[in-house]
Amino acid sequence: MSKPDFYLLIVFLSIFSICRGIPDSNEMDTSAYFLPQEIPGNSQLLINGRIWINQHEKVVGDQFLISSNFLPGSLVFNGRKYSDINIKYDILNDELLLALSYKPVIILNKEMVDSFILKIEGKPYNFINLGNDKDLPVKGYVNVLYNGPTALLVKYVKKIQPLGFEGKRDLFYQEHSIYIRKDTTIFQISGKRDLLEYLNDRSMELKYYIKSNKLRIKKKEPETFIPILNYYDRLRATGKD
């Protein structure tokens, strides 16, 4: 074989090898394949999850919280913390997706995810995994907005409305539910009335606090519940009657 032919063979084999390593774009999302990032430390535990395949390409919108892009965050997985990773949260299926350089997108093993943080425009979203306890009114990943003696939890969900987009295509839409944890019990609440009912040992003080501070509690804005829970915890801590 002549030298020119030998060099052409080397080039051909190199191109063939590279192409074999790139999955078919019709099989799965390739948007995160070439992120310039690797998981620090021992990542073998992380990548034993399932490969993610987009099953909803024809639905208008996306199934993710806040953004369909991978976001910077951190993760506690089987008791070990991983920082500076790229993740996104599929709230249709309640699954956490991980991006690794030059690898397919991975659905993390949910049973091993303890908690994770997503950073969106500098704001942290702190999620814990409540697991699948049948006795709890909420399961899976929940955002902890307030964590004192009581806690404020939000569960985000996306659903699909058939033919919801111009009557022609299916459409994603988002909902959320609000829960409070008091002592060891978790309750779902829909507004001020539910909140005061479950915090009934201090309901009079809370009513006065809400009125005097002109607080407005809105289900659409779960953060508006935080000042009331914070005040309730302070009342209980001081033992004020």
Kindly describe this structure:
By secondary structure, this protein is of the alpha+beta class. The chain has a domain at 26-113. The protein contains four helices and eleven strands. Strands 1-5-4-3-2-6-7-8-9-10-11 form an eleven-stranded antiparallel sheet. Strand 9 (150-165) and strand 10 form a beta hairpin. The N and C termini lie far apart (96 Å). The model is unreliable at 3-39 (pLDDT under 50).
Short synopsis of the structure:
The protein is 20% helix and 35% strand. With 241 residues, the chain is of the alpha+beta class. The termini are far apart.
Name the strands of the widest sheet in spatial order. 1-5-4-3-2-6-7-8-9-10-11
Give the overall silhouette: globular
Class by alpha and beta content: alpha+beta
Intertermini distance: 96 Å
Low-confidence stretches: 3-39
Can you summarize the main beta sheet?
11 strands, antiparallel
Question: What proportion strand?
Answer: 25-35%
The tally of strands reads 11
Order of helices and strands: HEEEEEEEEEEEHHH
Mean pLDDT level: 81
Radius of gyration, whole Å: 24 Å
Per DSSP, the total helix count is 4
Features:
241 residues, alpha+beta, disordered N terminus
